[in-house]
UniProtKB/TrEMBL annotation:
Its EC number is 3.2.1.21. It is an enzyme of class 3 (hydrolase). It comes from Kitasatospora atroaurantiaca. This is Beta-glucosidase. It comes from the Bacteria. The lineage of its organism: Bacteria, Bacillati, Actinomycetota, Actinomycetes, Kitasatosporales. It catalyses: Hydrolysis of terminal, non-reducing beta-D-glucosyl residues with release of beta-D-glucose.
Amino acid sequence: MTTTESHTVQAPTGSSFPPGFAWGAATAAYQIEGAVAEGGRTPSIWDTFSHTPGKVLDGDTGDTAVDHYHRFREDVRLMAELGLTSYRFSLSWPRIQPTGRGPAVERGLDFYRALVDELLDHGITPVATLYHWDLPQHLEDLGGWPARDTAARFADYAALAAEALGDRVGIWTTLNEPWCSAFLGYGSGVHAPGRTDPADALRAAHHLNLGHGLAVGALRSALPSSARTAISLNLHQIRPLTTDPADREAARRIDAVGNRVFTGPILGGAYPEDLLADTAHLVDWDSLVQPGDPAEISRPIDLLGINYYTPTVVSSAENAKDLPRHDGHGASEASPWPGAEDVAFHLAPGERTAMGWPIDPSGLTDLLLDVHRAHPGLPMLVTENGAAFEDAVGPDGAVDDPERISYLHGHLAAVARAVEAGADVRGYYLWSLMDNFEWAYGYGKRFGAVHIDYRTLARTPKASARWYAEVIRRGGLPQSPEL
């Protein structure tokens, strides 16, 4: 999504969130579960990647993570104490279907049955994500997402999960951030499986789209009519550095391969012509997209998940001379932007998180309104939003994180402004419920509202968790971050 303007985000006056608004938090299986060899689970691509020297900071792995597999009841009690009305979690594909083929492992399903029952017992609505990047290693060995068969295998897995949990779970998300799966996993290689082939990245994007559509069909066949389907996209809120036509062209190219490669076929039934032209030298789209694929991919969904952290500022290479730049997602010599490798990325001015990401809530307002205008009538959820900061435990055992409180206040106000302007936003999911394995950053970055002592695995709600709990209790924001 591109924009040339930004908005100043002000706190809403009173409660600007619709009735029934979902107040949630989100996690992902590999980042929190641990127990990687229990209950029949086999390795995923992230197990392999994290155990490969040099791929993850400090050699960290998700082998134990925060041991949610054994501590989920404690974690659900924490959610209830915070007043969460909804919890977005992901299912581990290799825990349910270890090789990505064949019948489900009941022990794997039993873990999720118990988790969902615990959530329901505490009045918390479960939102299940089928895929948050943990492809069974067996399927990667057979070609991974660049192979068309993986999309069919994903639909089979979706059917198994829906048949087992469809009586308990009413909202199903197919994929989380397929852009990262395709372009960081197979393009720049900074995420699992660590491959660096721009053509494979584009093939992976198409097969992720196809897998999504096939999974929606499988879900619809197995779930009650009241169930809702969704996908969560990390749409890039793209801003050209200047109004120079060359910078606007750079923004167009990144919008094509960063956003419309997914929204085009999923919401519009076709890949955008400019994307096809930009990448024609890399893949033969006529043979990649087979007859029937567009209709399969564009099966209607009930909700669109939006993940947002920071805007994306770009320029032409010529206009970037002598200006500070960054690489646009991950330190790698290979680009995650096939067809736009020469576009320059810039950090917006202002305060930044511990990830180095500029803090700009106006980008979230812009993004939600852009989607609302492009796809009127499609309800949205903010399925991820949050920030990492250098949190520390004080002498009294408390964790004060005023920067995160300020970040959350600003971004919740941004959601409220979008709602006031007409965007149909149904819920907000804080990333993340608790500190966890932050992918290639290992345990070096803390996004959680709940602090984890990685030595003892003790859980300590941070000041931001208590602040969020009070916002939930009120059903709206105070005028300033101070309650």
